[in-house]
Amino acid sequence: MISQFFILSSKGDPLIYKDFRGDSGGRDVAELFYRKLTGLPGDESPVVMHHEGRHFIHIRHSGLYLVVTTSENVSPFGLLELLSRLATLLGDYCGSLGEGTISRNVALVYELLDEVLDYGYVQTTSTEMLRNFIQTEAVVSKPFSLFDLSSVGLFGAETQQSKVAPSSAASRPVLSSRSDQSQKNEVFLDVVERLSVLIASNGSLLKVDVQGEIRLKSFLPSGSEMRIGLTEEFCVGKSELRVSLFPGYGPGIRVDEVSFHSFVNLDEFESHRILRLQPPQGELTVMRYQLSDDLPSPLPFRLFPSVQWDRGSGRLQVYLKLRCDLPLKSQALNVRLHLPLPRGVISLSQELSSPEQKAELAEGALRWDLPRVQGGSQLSGLFQMDVPRPPGLPSHGLSTSAPPLGLGPASLSFELPRHTCSGLQVRFLRLAFRPCGNANPHKWVRHLSHSDAYVIRI
Amino acid sequence: MPYLGSEDVVKELKKALCNPHIQADRLRYRNVIQRVIRYMTQGLDMSGVFMEMVKASATVDIVQKKLVYLYMCTYAPLKPDLALLAINTLCKDCSDPNPMVRGLALRSMCSLRMSKLDQWGQAEVLNFLLRYQPRSEEELFDILNLLDSFLKSGSPGVVMGATKLFLILAKKFPHVQTDVLVRVKGPLLAACSSESRELCFVALCHVRQILHSLPGHFSSHYKKFFCSYSEPHYIKLQKVEVLCELVNDENVQQVLEELRGYCTDVSADFAQAAIFAIGSIARTYTDQCVQILTELLGLRQEHITTVVVQTFRDLVWLCPQCTEAVCQALPGCEENIQDSEGKQALIWLLGVHGERIPNAPYVLEDFVENVKSETFPAVKMELLTALLRLFLSRPAECQDMLGRLLYYCIEEEKDMAVRDRGLFYYRLLLVGIDEVKRILCSPKSDPTLGLLEDPAERPVNSWASDFNTLVPVYGKSRWATISKCHGAERCGPELPKTSSFAASGPLIPEENKERVQEVPDSGALMLVPNLQLTADYFEKTWLSLKVAHQQVLPWQGEFHPDTLQMALQVVNIQTIAMSRAGARPWKAYLSAQDDTGCLFLTELLWKPENSEMQISVKQNETRTETLKSFISVLETVIGTIEEIKS
């Protein structure tokens, strides 16, 4: 089964190394792995690599390499699942996963690995079960304060977020079994959607794909029951005869496919769209869903590009108009437009519609940053550039309408706080747990959509 | 259901069970135990006395034993930790002299059900079950029904493990296999758009594997395989491969549109991969693809033009109907080609199809003018052949420069191979123009090669044992080199050579063991490419072995040894020697070796008067399974050639 497990920093320094079976190599395999990884030809995949009878399988997570080696022809799905589960587990116990937290908590990580894997076989990866065995306390860099609003974020998505909850509150470690229970009882529930879109050059929509997740991070005592109420119009499947629970309330919130974590009790799902579960402490993906091609709301952004190119003089003019079709009260954050440009292009001038925007030419591409875009607004940018003419190319007889090689497609990245593209919302989060003290548990419910690939052909 | 008051009962019974006086009195002890059982049947929660009951199992009284085991089997799921304590007693009972006790212990052990396995345990068990051979069809379907729920698991590892088990168990029921592959479509597609690129990559590799057997399987989901700019290179390349394989009449327009977008990608490698992909789709949808490729030439980019011309070369060889369009697109290309591969392709096209390209002699003349500064010998060789070919169709325009080129190659060229080729052509020309024509004017295309290159749908069984292993992730050919270096390593989890098998051995009936060992063999025949066997060695081995298999295949009409040789080469069967074309009877000797080192020596004997081909195969190790696979490969090749001919 698994021979070795190690964690490398993004620069290749070994942070954690554990040999489970003593059947292969030695410590230098970590170095070997990094050498192989960096020396790999571009068209080969680094996911599984082979060296002298040993397979290296790894994932990249939070800038770290989590690697296992094995000499057997194992199930790749199983191993990748184990690695990402380990990443979550380490995140749960150390607060968050990163080079700093791992090196501060080396003892804890080794203790966890000892319990999770025995002679290369998985024993358990349940946060709950492991709490009984783990003695080491997590070392955290700074004390937590709920009022520390300087840095905000969402525990699930590694993105900047509006000020809804302090990020550090979510990145504290789960409680060990012996520590006092007087700490904050908190629950974080995030609905996160990734949106990938492809729009043809004539503006027609070629592909829409939404991958959604409901993620839960609980610091309540394990086994306390909670009920999550979803939008009642929520329905699953592509059937034309969609019956929403409350007819007359418009079309249902529809997804194509949905899968639940095995902890989720679906007794009340059919009748009331309520998920019941008794989660262990730590992070958990309650539900995953997908939706393609048929969004209930208009796409958040439309881009209207116009390109003029004079092939003779090499002058290239790109005019971009960006319309945000979100509801008026919503806004998009950290919007960035990335437009690859022909090789060797030189910027001449730019005109932007508002002062807070920024645009620059970097690495052969135009980068246009819009920190905040209000729903219903329209922004524009006019860019003049000079494209060097390839030598030996005749400067006449070619149409000027065709865009030059290497221009486009444009891609957008953004975050939409308090917005889900599928329309799915969490109606309520109810806890059956009654604290012994007077402190009521804090509940944080957040919605966020962000772009995965939002591509517009030019 | 437990109701109020059961605590008192449990407390009292516990006390009674612990009482040494009662324990000493066999009848009273049994009575107390009977009470426990009675309450248990009534629905009281009796799990509190589990410890005491386990102790009570250590007795010679068979009645008491039976009662205690009944209790344990009921509560073991609730108390998995304590149930482990009972195992010791059960094991001891298994070696009891009394057969009744032994039987009872075994039966109880089998019905001890502990709490549900977690996903890792499930995956382990599913993997372990691969070794089991159901005895009857009924048992097989019982097992499949039990496994059904695992296909719906939320863990990809468990879903894929269950899928593999289904594929292996149902190897004689193709409709069941297809059904399972339909059900695994959802989880696989979800993994393909997963946030984890590693998972995404592995899923894509498995999608490709499935597409080899069921080409239409993912066609309606083609958009899921469009690349996004932020993805790493290796995922983009996999997606392009998948797009090539799932293309059909409905989606070809959209897929080509998408691929065309990639052709102008900033990454030259990715752009070239996309162009090659369009080239491979062109074998089916020739006109549309040739049009796109021709448009790409208009961009006048070196890295694009060279790959397009190479694609054209391969295309006219396989699809002669597009020759006209290609010939019209070629003029002007030479300005944008600098690399050896591209030049060779262009020169080949100009030589073979020069009579249809008006300016072909002038383009070749440019190459001849600059031959001194040409750095690649391969380009010079190609130029010699191409010019000689063109000379045959357009002698007036080529004679002069052919003379100059031959003079240069013979007198000034430093590369021996080029010089020899020049001399050879010179001497050939001396023999006479008819002889040159006879030798150089071979067919200009061979559509049959395409059929051999991508063999029709491979059966699911040929890769079922590779599913959910590293084989699809590495790719079959890379896996072959890896496993060749480390022979023992090929034993996947299903093979019996691993140490863990020793412990599990007794679980498999003796007569099944052999069959288990056969599993990896069947269909997994892998012939080693580039086997080098001398004729002497072949002869010696051939004479020392007995014929392992002999059969006769029908063969009508004419015979082209070259086509056969090429076809055999594709499937890694080497031709050691063969009679010249037209000889009767006609004979050929072939050799091949699989990755475990087993040699297959074959004699083909064609007797035109009987219109049949006799095949005799000898093997240096007696292994029936691989022999069968080898014969079927041979049959397929010969069958294909026969079909093409007719």
Automatic annotation (TrEMBL), chain A:
Membrane-spanning segments: none
Cellular component GO terms, alphabetical: clathrin adaptor complex; early endosome; Golgi apparatus
Signal sequence extent: none
Membrane-protein topology: Peripheral membrane protein
Gene Ontology biological process terms from the UniProt entry: intracellular protein transport; protein targeting; vesicle-mediated transport
Matching CDD domains: AP-4_Mu4_Cterm, AP4_Mu_N
Principal location class: other
Sequence ranges assigned to domain MHD in this UniProt record: 184-457
Keywords, ordered alphabetically: Endosome, Golgi apparatus, Membrane, Protein transport, Transport
Keyword Ligase carried by entry: no
Highest taxon listed in the record's lineage: Eukaryota
Record localization: Early endosome; Golgi apparatus, trans-Golgi network membrane
Keyword Transmembrane among UniProt keywords: no
InterPro entries, sorted: Adaptor_comp_med_subunit, AP2_Mu_C_sf, AP_mu_sigma_su, Clathrin_mu, Clathrin_mu_CS, Longin-like_dom_sf, MHD
Function: Component of the adaptor protein complex 4 (AP-4). Adaptor protein complexes are vesicle coat components involved both in vesicle formation and cargo selection. They control the vesicular transport of proteins in different trafficking pathways. AP-4 forms a non clathrin-associated coat on vesicles departing the trans-Golgi network (TGN) and may be involved in the targeting of proteins from the trans-Golgi network (TGN) to the endosomal-lysosomal system.
PANTHER family: AP COMPLEX SUBUNIT MU
Similarity-based family: Belongs to the adaptor complexes medium subunit family.
Subunit text: Adaptor protein complex 4 (AP-4) is a heterotetramer composed of two large adaptins (epsilon-type subunit AP4E1 and beta-type subunit AP4B1), a medium adaptin (mu-type subunit AP4M1) and a small adaptin (sigma-type AP4S1). Interacts with tyrosine-based sorting signals on the cytoplasmic tail of cargo proteins such as APP, ATG9A, LAMP2 and NAGPA. Interacts with the C-terminal domain of GRID2. Interacts with GRIA1 and GRIA2; the interaction is indirect via CACNG3.
Protein name in UniProt: AP-4 complex subunit mu-1
Organism: Sapajus apella (Brown-capped capuchin)
Gene it is expressed from: AP4M1
UniProtKB/TrEMBL annotation, chain B:
GO cellular component, one term: trans-Golgi network
Annotated membrane topology: Peripheral membrane protein
Keywords attached to this entry: Golgi apparatus, Membrane, Protein transport, Transport
InterPro entries assigned: AP_beta (IPR026739), AP_complex_bsu_1_2_4 (IPR016342), ARM-like (IPR011989), ARM-type_fold (IPR016024), B-adaptin_app_sub_C (IPR015151), Clathrin/coatomer_adapt-like_N (IPR002553), TBP_dom_sf (IPR012295)
GO molecular function: clathrin binding
One of the GO biological process terms: protein targeting
Pfam family, any one: Adaptin_N
Localization terms from the record: Golgi apparatus, trans-Golgi network membrane
Domain Beta-adaptin appendage C-terminal subdomain intervals: 527-639
Protein family per UniProt: Belongs to the adaptor complexes large subunit family.
Protein role: Component of the adaptor protein complex 4 (AP-4). Adaptor protein complexes are vesicle coat components involved both in vesicle formation and cargo selection. They control the vesicular transport of proteins in different trafficking pathways. AP-4 forms a non clathrin-associated coat on vesicles departing the trans-Golgi network (TGN) and may be involved in the targeting of proteins from the trans-Golgi network (TGN) to the endosomal-lysosomal system.
Assembly: Adaptor protein complex 4 (AP-4) is a heterotetramer composed of two large adaptins (epsilon-type subunit AP4E1 and beta-type subunit AP4B1), a medium adaptin (mu-type subunit AP4M1) and a small adaptin (sigma-type AP4S1). Interacts with TEPSIN; this interaction requires the presence of a functional AP-4 complex. Interacts with GRIA2; probably indirect it mediates the somatodendritic localization of GRIA2 in neurons.
Record protein name field: AP complex subunit beta
Lineage: Eukaryota, Metazoa, Chordata, Craniata, Vertebrata
Name of the gene this protein is made from: AP4B1
